[in-house]
Automatic annotation (TrEMBL):
Pfam families: Bmp. Keywords: Signal. This is BMP family ABC transporter substrate-binding protein. Transmembrane segments: none annotated. Residues 40-332 form the ABC transporter substrate-binding protein PnrA-like domain. InterPro entries: ABC-Purine-Binding, Peripla_BP_I, PnrA-like. Residues 1-19 form the signal peptide. It comes from Cryptosporangium japonicum. It comes from the Bacteria.
Length: 378
């Protein structure tokens, strides 16, 4: 796999911390051994590995690596804050023999850069961020264009809602969350022009108390479909299910939490991409900052790290057909952000017929028309 050159603007790092961390190791039992003489691979996660969300998906990806490379021990650490504690945990993994480190949270960027600079013989890759400018040659970033399946899930939400009010609980107004909220609304509006998406931010990747309040607030406004961009997703899903409303999932398959109200979702399947990244390093083909690389994969690349979650029992065949048609179009020559795209103030941000590139999409700093709520100023 080649690292693609995408010169992208730097995103603002927003930190979310958990208090403790623990380190475990695992090794696979089958697959293609790289022949690296017992080198280890380290993965750090900002939250627990069983959060029904972001960290669970990343942990499952690490276990796919363990299976693919049984001769390389996989070290994992949960609940690693996005501060100097991340540096400490990665340094500990390197002392144990790790030669590849996956820093899997947005706010792990700066610690990952620091560790990469201090250990030029260790490859450090960071999940979800963007770095523009000089980087250590042993450092790179990667992510998937997850706003594409979020747009598709928006179609399902737009066809399902009876009140024309959708809800979205999110953590921070970074580019990833703004892209997802906007894509969700654009997808819903493509099949239901009357629909609106009401947003609530929690200023935390995983705070169940704040999530419960956010869900309560949205439900009280008549929202009948709720999605989210939170690391841990169970609280919002359970609250929505208990209210007899509909859920669109994110990060992982949580159908077990909402047997009646689950619609669909966007979930990560990191295993193939993680495994391919490891192979790139083992084969000596990692080029890192020589090309200022920020690697992005999605529907157009054919090696996207996400899948659409299973459909729930209420999704009709007609709605599924609409999703299939939209996915085929995006995979070929379109995008959720193909113009016209208009913001909340009525300003055209993407002209009609124009399909923005990754750089433009990942620098979005506005809400589109139909989103109800304001971006926090700080």
């Amino acid at each position: 796999m080649k690292w693609k050159l995408l010169r992208l603007v730097a995103a603002t790092a927003l930190l979310a911390a958990c208090a403790t961390n623990s380190t475990t190791s695992s090794s696979g039992t089958s697959g293609d051994a790289p022949g690296t003489g017992g080198d280890k691979i380290g993965f750090i996660f900002v939250g627990p590995k069983d959060d029904y969300g972001y960290n669970q998906a990343a942990y499952q990806g690490s276990q796919a690596v363990a299976t693919a490379y049984p001769d390389m021990e996989v070290l994992t650490a949960e609940n690693v804050p996005e501060d100097d504690n991340a540096t400490r945990v990665m340094e500990s993994m390197i002392r144990k023999g790790a030669k590849i480190i996956f820093a899997t949270s947005y706010g792990h960027k700066d610690p990952a850069l620091k560790v990469a600079a201090a250990h030029p013989d260790v490859v450090v890759v960071q999940q979800g961020n963007i770095v523009d400018g000089a980087m250590p040659k042993n450092f790179g970033t990667y992510f998937g264009t997850v706003y594409e399946p979020v747009y598709l899930a928006g179609i399902v939400a737009g066809k399902t809602t009876k009140t024309n009010k959708l809800g979205y609980v999110y953590a921070f107004p970074i580019s990833q969350t703004l892209d997802n909220i906007n894509a969700f609304q654009l997808g819903a509006a493509s099949v239901n022009p009357a629909v609106k998406t009401y947003v609530v931010n929690t200023s935390s990747w995983c705070d169940p108390a704040k999530q419960a309040e956010a869900a309560k607030s949205l439900l009280s406004q008549g929202v009948d479909v709720i999605s989210q961009h939170q690391d841990c997703t169970a609280t919002v899903i359970r609250a929505t299910e208990a209210a007899g409303k509909y859920t669109v999932g994110y990060h992982a398959d949580a159908t077990a939490l909402a047997p009646k109200g689950w619609l669909t979702g966007s979930q990560w399947d990191w295993g193939p991409l993680y495994t391919s990244l490891v192979r790139t390093v083992v084969d000596g083909k990692f080029v890192g900052s020589e090309y200022n690389a920020n690697y992005r994969v999605g529907l157009k690349t054919g090696d996207n790290p996400f899948v659409r979650s299973p459909y729930g029992p209420t999704v009709s065949a007609d709605t599924k057909s609409l999703v299939d048609a939209a996915q085929a179009k995006i995979s070929k020559d379109s995008s959720p952000f193909t113009g016209p795209v208009v913001d909340q103030a009525g300003k055209t941000r993407v002209p009609a017929g124009t399909t923005p590139d990754y750089k433009t999409i990942e620098s979005i700093d506005y809400f589109v028309k139909g989103v109800v709520g304001q971006i926090p100023s700080s």
